Amino acid sequence: MQRKTVLDTAETARILGERLPPALPVSVRVSPRAKGIVLRMLPGQGLEVVTPAGVPVQFLAQAVEARRGWIARMFERLAAEGGVPGEAPALPRPERLVLTAFGRQWRLSYLLKDRPGCALAPRGPGELVVSGAVGDPAAVAAALAGFCRDKAGELLRPALAAASRETGLAYTAVTIRAQRTRWGSCTARGRVSLNYTIAFLPWELCRLVLIHELCHTVELNHSPRFWAVLERHIPGCRELDARLNAARHYLPLWLAGTAATADPP
Known about the structure:
Elements: H1 9-17, E1 26-30, E2 38-42, E3 46-51, H2 57-66, H3 68-80, E4 96-99, E5 104-112, E6 118-124, E7 127-132, H4 137-167, E8 173-177, E9 184-186, E10 191-195, H5 203-215, H6 224-233, H7 237-245
Parallel strand pairs: 1-3, 5-7, 8-10
Antiparallel strand pairs: 2-3, 4-5, 6-7, 9-10
């Protein structure tokens, strides 16, 4: 019986990396559960090639070559958000801010100044300049988070009011916060609290959070009665809720050190 060749993952990664941008790290992982070759772009790690055992290197190279366009697009996105690792930790300085739920975005530029912290100021239509200690990732992230929280509040308050009119579910007050453990919450007195980061989600997931919290004004727990109320207002809400459980990847990379990604409401 011929002995089975064990894939040298490090050497294979080097070979595949020669076909890709030099700044993009490549890793290869052999998985006994993989049914085919899978390419994954991982923030902070680069391109991961997952392969079943026994796949020749040339087949992996063909898979990478076939997805070159997708790899290039994802690489540009990671680079724009500071998610491509290098020899030193990448600075999370994005080229733009995007509040996906509301289709709002701003281009970003950076200006180094000898001062603590960072500040944002408008430079033109849809453009912001970040000035100050722009080499400090924490200072940049704090400034971006403050801006996004204010803008998200301006957009989420009327969105919740519109959802209230749509559903007929009334609330007494709303606050916009940087909640560390939840997308939103609601008290027995109908006070709704929203995590501003839901503005980074697709609109259908953002809307789900809004109406989810409004439904808590009549059903405070997650009983079958609660889900029946939510289903009346959002048919198929269980499927959307499952998407919300895995929605962390919609949050920008620079946000990691400022507000923890949230759990479902």
